[in-house]
Each structure stands twice: as C-alpha cells, then as structure tokens.
Amino acid sequence: MNGKTSALTAACAALVLATGCTAGTTDSAGGTSAGQPTVRVALGVDASYAPFYLAVERGMFEKAGVNVELVKTEGGPAAAEAVSAGTAQISANADSTALPLMATNPDLRSLGVFQSSDRYLKVVLRDGVDSPKQIKTMASIGGLGLYATHQYLRHNDVDPKSVKILQSSPPEIPGMLERGSIDAYVLFEPWAARGAAAGGHVAGRIGDFGVKYVQWLLTDQKWLADNEEVAGKVFKVVAAADKLVTDDPAAAAKASNQQVKLPAADTEKVLPEITFAARGITAADVAESKKIVDFLREQKLIKKSPDLGTSLLKGWYEQHAR
C-alpha cells in the first residue's frame, strides 16, 4: 500500500460520527451539492466547536452559498490529518496540535484564529494528591495536552522527566484516573469534569501557569489555491457564529446537543471559559508558535521547524474573511 493510500486509510479510521469515507467523499477537491461547493470541515467533539454546530443548525453556511459537512473526529491531530489525507478540506485545530503536523506537511496553512482560551483546559488531580510534587504518573493527549502538561510540571518545579507521562485519548483518561493508573492530567471539557466526578478534583486552569491556546482554521495550500473565495465564506460564517455563541450560549449549547449530543446544561456552563472571536494571524501568534516549536524540538517530537512565515498566513483573514 503506498504512502498516500496509507494516510487516507488512517484518516478514515480516525473519523467517528462522520459523513462516510467513501469513494465519492474523499477527494481533496470537495465537490458540489445543489449548485453549492461542498466543504468538509474536520473537528473534534466538545464545546469549543460550538460555532460550527450552531452554524449548521441554523443553516448559516447554506445561506452563505457553501454546503458544509462536519466530519467529527476524536480530536487532536486527527482533524488536521484528515486535511492532509484529503478527507476534509478545512480543519479546526489548536496551535500546538497543528504545528508538529506542519513540520511534516509543509502544505498545511493556518487561515486565522476562531477562538482562544487560558481557562478551558484544566488540571485534574486524583483525590489524595494535593500537590504537584506528589505526581508520579500523568496521562496526556498529544499536541496542546502534552505542551500544557510539561508547562504545568515546570511551573511547579517538577522535572517532567521524573514523571511518567502516558499518551492516551480524552475519553479514556478519566477512567485511568478513577482506576488509580494515573495521578493527574490536563484536559478540556467535558473530560475535566468527568475526572472530577470519578475520584478526582480540578486543581487549576492552564492560565494559572502561563499557557493559552488559540484554535486555527487549517487547510491545504493545494486546495486553497483554487478555493480562496470558498474558504473565506466558511470563515465569515464561523466568525458570525462566534458572536452568536458569545451572545447566546444557551442557543449554542442546544445546537451542540442536537449535533453531537453534548449535555446542554454542561456545555452552557463551560462556553464562557472560551473567547469566541475570529481574527487574523498576528506577530504575537508567530512568536508563541516559535516557543511551541522549540518545545517540540526539545522533546524530539519533530526533527525540523515548520516554515512559520509560509504556514501561518498573516493577512489572509483580513483580505478574504472580513
């Protein structure tokens, strides 16, 4: 099986609750539906993607002239990997999750930011563990989760090398805490709350130790070259939906429940922890990305840095999505 086929198969295997990975839906060019261009947007399943759920529920993409299909994944790198494999044209990913993928796929592009937070990810400690210095084992997802985990330990004068860090997926981690397999983790909702209900307690937020993430819309340069107007329409809708989520979190929570069955009450509670605001890439984003890349290289997770001047499209949002 060649490399392209392997990547496509891996991406299809990662998709859950998705529109199917079939011969008619995996082309990197997307397609058309009822005369409108079809764009598959890959994203995770949690409250941070509420603008997409709300936009779909209200038909906002269709009104803008784009047929958007949400391709729901397990989160983390799976969304951007779907773009690389051609099973989606756009993905929603955190900066520290996207950057290692940009190092291996130089065609990935960040179009801009659609939300950010230093409050949404939380530190969960197992009951009986009251200090970071008591931690012997943690679980972490890749990308943002691993970066935040290391920053948390360093902030508390704990050498990350002294802690066993197990890689896992969000749904599995609260159970690991409940079984006593780990002492702590850093993760977003609803998995932080589930850990707190399963023999743990929330001990802080990532902003407490200087971490803040931004979520980007990512795409592939080959697709973007012929579809900038379409990408701009998608981003404009997301920006409008950002404002609606901020103004009416109850409606956003209801839409999230209808789209992916997230409990509405829990979602409405955590939405204010996220800043839903669309904007272009700034010099500060590039500087923060450089810090994350330095961490990734230090951990030997990437061999070389992505070309940030090429991968992060400064000015694109202002030109195409405002």
Describe the structure.
- It is a single chain.
- The chain has 322 residues and is α/β, with parallel strands linked by helices.
- It has helices at residues 3-14, 50-57, 60-63, 78-85, 95-104, 144-155, 173-179, 191-196, 221-226, 228-247, 249-260, 264-270, 283-298, 308-311, 316-320; strands at residues 31-33, 36-43, 67-72, 90-94, 108-117, 122-126, 137-140, 164-167, 184-187, 200-205, 213-220.
- The strands form 2 sheets. Strands 1, 2, 3, 4, 5 and 11 form a 6-stranded mixed sheet that branches. A 5-stranded mixed sheet has the order 8-7-9-6-10.
- Strand 1 (31-33) and strand 2 (36-43) form a beta hairpin.
- The longest helix is centred in the last third of the chain and has 20 residues, at 228-247.
Short note summarizing the structure:
By secondary structure, this protein is α/β, with parallel strands linked by helices.
Secondary structure blueprint with pairings:
Elements: H1 3-14, E1 31-33, E2 36-43, H2 50-57, H3 60-63, E3 67-72, H4 78-85, E4 90-94, H5 95-104, E5 108-117, E6 122-126, E7 137-140, H6 144-155, E8 164-167, H7 173-179, E9 184-187, H8 191-196, E10 200-205, E11 213-220, H9 221-226, H10 228-247, H11 249-260, H12 264-270, H13 283-298, H14 308-311, H15 316-320
Parallel strand pairs: 2-3, 2-4, 7-8, 7-9
Antiparallel strand pairs: 1-2, 4-11, 5-11, 6-9, 6-10
